[in-house]
Amino acid sequence: MTSLFYKIFPHTSDLGIEVSAFSLIDLFKNAAMAIMDLVVEPASVAKQDVIELNVQAENRELLFREWLSEILYFVFVKEYLFQSFRITKLDSHSLNAIASGEKIDYRRHKLKRELKSITYHQLQVSEVDGKWTGRFVIDV
Q: Backbone phi, then psi, for 11, in 5-degree steps?
């Protein structure tokens, strides 16, 4: 499975994801949208509410993982789906974002799969010649 901004790579019993973008902010946004695309059809999610998301970590790779883990927490614990993300602050140790979406309505939203957690395995954020790439593995 591929899209314009992410692809799934082979990984034993888990789901490996590689995301690309031309800026670090877009990489983080694309990774969040990849999660949403794996869970639900993003076009079925309305921009009813706005939620502020804030995460911190020791370095960029761990921040990437914490960001994606926060998205999974909202989806599978708080039962909230997102349609868009706007990152308002991003540095090596913290990220602030505004996410638009709505509570899950099981009559309208057909969940594609359950994603359990973002692992540390093959976690990577890198930049080569102006192109950013992020890799992560999801426990399914």
A: -155, 130
pLDDT tens, residue order, the chain (140 aa): 446 679 888 777 799 999 999 999 999 999 999 999 999 998 999 999 999 999 999 999 999 999 999 999 999 999 999 999 999 999 999 999 999 999 999 999 999 999 999 999 999 999 999 999 999 999 98
Instruction: Provide the CATH topology of domain 6-139.
Output: Archease, Possible Chaperone; Chain: A; domain 1 (3.55.10)
98: helix, strand or coil: strand
Say what the pTM is: 0.92
Residue 121 per-residue DSSP state: T
Question: What residue has token string 């794996």?
Answer: 38
For the chain, the structural domain boundaries read 6-139
